[in-house]
Specification:
The chain is α+β, with helices and mostly antiparallel strands.
Length: about 200
């Protein structure tokens, strides 16, 4: 994206996605001192995402802007993005992606042999689209959901999923890498148990 656009990734994403969707509190870091006071952080003992990988400080510009992770946001900004995806590329009367593009993004692009084994992060019953784990079928995954739903989570614990069958998306903002695997399936169970249709 940087080579084609001639812009740093943060500028390209801001111009093409964040500003058009009015996602004012989303970026690769929080430079505004006033907004820095709103940063939710884990307890000191829970800053490790992996055994030797500590969470980065969102107050400092990262050395490398990753197109696959590392952004900071708010629940409301995240909700705008997910509403746009759930609406197949449209948000508040404006079209950002074509329905065909969103459908392609949330379709499984792996064959059965690649989407298996203990190292496959999305888990049993899931494939992978363009940036999302995609539920291929019902009854195989360890957590409740619907075929066609898609999800992903952040290293520090944030998590979302979109379930078109129920016209629903969920944003879960948590800063606890140690507890993410415990709370994510619990949250799913609680939300689906509350659906009566």
């Amino acid at each position: 994206m940087e080579v084609v656009s001639g812009q740093p990734l943060s500028q390209f994403v801001a111009a093409r996605l964040l500003r058009p969707l009015s996602m004012r509190d989303t970026g690769f870091w929080v430079s505004d001192p006033v907004r820095q006071g709103r940063i939710a952080e884990p307890f000191r003992a829970q800053r490790l995402i992996l055994p030797k990988l500590e969470m980065s400080d969102p107050r400092r510009a990262p050395r490398f802007e990753s197109a696959g992770g590392g952004m900071v946001s708010t629940a409301m900004d995240y909700a705008k993005f997910l509403r746009m995806l759930l609406n197949r590329g449209e948000f508040e009367g404006h079209r950002y992606l074509s329905p065909a593009t969103v459908d392609y993004m949330v379709s499984n692009h792996l064959d059965g042999g690649m989407a298996s084994g203990p190292s496959f992060t999305p888990g049993p019953g899931y494939g992978f689209g363009l940036g999302f784990a995609v539920r291929r079928e019902g009854g195989i995954a360890s957590a409740i959901g619907s075929p066609g739903e898609y999800y992903w989570g952040g290293g520090a614990g944030t998590y979302f999923w979109v379930d078109p069958k129920y016209d629903m998306f969920v944003v879960f903002m948590m800063q606890s890498p140690r507890m993410r695997d415990a709370y994510r399936p619990l949250l799913r169970s609680l939300i689906y148990a509350a659906i009566l249709r």
